[in-house]
Amino acid sequence: MTNHYITSQNGAPVADDQNSVTAGARGPVLLQDFHLIEKLAHFNRERIPERIVHAKGTGVYGTFTVTNDLSQYTIADHFQGVGKQTEVFVRFSTVGGEMGSADAERDPRGFGVRFYTARGNHDIVGNNTPTFFLRDGIKFPDFIHTQKRNPMTNLKDPQAMWDFWSLNPEALHQVTILMSDRGIPANYRQMHGYGSHTFSFWNAKGERYWVKFHFRCQQPIANLTEEQAAKVKGIDPDHAQRDIVAAITDGNFPRWQLCVQIMPEADAEKYHVNPFDLTKVWSHKDYPLIEVGMMELNRLPQNYFAEVEQVALAPSNLVPGVGASPDKMLQARLFAYADAQRYRIGANYNQLPVNCPHATQANHHQRAGAMAGTQCPYHQSQTGGDATPNYGPNSVETGLQDASQFKEPPLRIDGDADRYSRFDQDDFTQAGDLYRIFSEEEKQRLADTIAGTLSQATQDVQQKMICHFSRADADYGARVAKALAK
């Protein structure tokens, strides 16, 4: 029997395909949302073997040095003690392109940082933008499908891209960033980085704070125009990879200052925007940047495949003192990234040298699976097929115990489990605020860039987008309409 409604893979009708089940309108996503899990799990298995997103990138090792002790906010040891150094690994990447794509595409840039801390690996897996196109991870597979190749023609599809954005005005802020002069970074060394999501800190008193991470570039920011990028793609499609290899080889070590925005837990209830909405930023006037330390990249990997291709960054790699938040995109990524790595590399991917903890020992009861027994060269761990019990609790005197001293304080949640949409949303103000700080020349280039691909979409999609631009700022909409009419 033919029907016209969306179903799960078992044929069951899906009542709402666009909103995750959460505990209250601003609460965390519930694991019982089997439709969300099915979408994300299937999405993670759609390509073999390269990453579905962030396929092309480069990695560099370095150090992070604390310049301002944050012990009043967090028990995370790598953010405490002025002068304390922590080894880091950073992977830069484009997002939408395949392994063979050009580095100079108009695309967000992945900015993933791993801290090899004394209490485990802490990954901040972000971008070079403080926002994203979506606020709910259930939409992520659909969005990426519009950025990839059309399944029939195997060509990029501007109609799909703009059709999706026209039906999801929450993307407008990030679209404005992407289509502006900031949309094509000149290289990986001359751009800011952001954790983008809202995370949490907690201190020794059990007090929780909401936090956003900012990596402030210490090199001059540089971007490419559309014309410059077109030339660079033809001359050297690997220019960003070549640039950072040359810089490190020459001893020109790039640096970023890590800063945080800190919001007391109680402020989240009364802040004028949802602080867990990934399409929004927090005003620096409300929550100023607080310096944490300096990151310097100074060492190249010795084997690209082993260290860069097999690095498995995941936002679920959290350490005591740093936690998640009810950010719905983050909640989905906590599952999706680690699951993608298990599929892409294997169940024991964390035993590989680039992924295993460098400054501490991994001890757990997990055994077997692909690459079982792979020995981390940094420590003799209790995992991988030795004679210790593979279950807990057990009666062995030296058995593993709970680290209850690092327990995260409880998070109060309240609300009915439902698929919430349209809760106190304003998808236009911040996009308009961004547009208004651009110069006249920047505004015109933005409009021309948008028109370049929007002109390839149908008239109805063009009109929807002009309406969105106009709601952000009347001049924004008028400029795009004029550019489309040329």
From TrEMBL:
Keyword Protein biosynthesis: no
Superkingdom of source: Bacteria
Region (Disordered): 1-20, 365-387
UniProt binding sites for heme: 337
Ranges for domain Catalase core: 7-400
Annotated GO CC locations: cytoplasm
Positions of the catalytic residues: 54, 127
UniProt xrefs under CDD domains: catalase_clade_3 (cd08156)
Presence of the UniProt keyword Kinase in the record: no
SMART domains with a match to the protein in the record: Catalase
Example GO BP: hydrogen peroxide catabolic process
Cofactor: heme
UniProt biased composition (Polar residues): 377-387
EC number(s) reported in the record: 1.11.1.6
GO MF annotations in UniProt: catalase activity; heme binding; metal ion binding
Catalytic activity: 2 H2O2 = O2 + 2 H2O
Pfam families: Catalase (PF00199), Catalase-rel (PF06628)
Assigned keywords, A-Z: Heme, Hydrogen peroxide, Iron, Metal-binding, Oxidoreductase, Peroxidase
Family: Belongs to the catalase family.
Protein name: Catalase
Natural source organism: Shewanella mangrovi
Taxonomy of the source species: Bacteria, Pseudomonadati, Pseudomonadota, Gammaproteobacteria, Alteromonadales
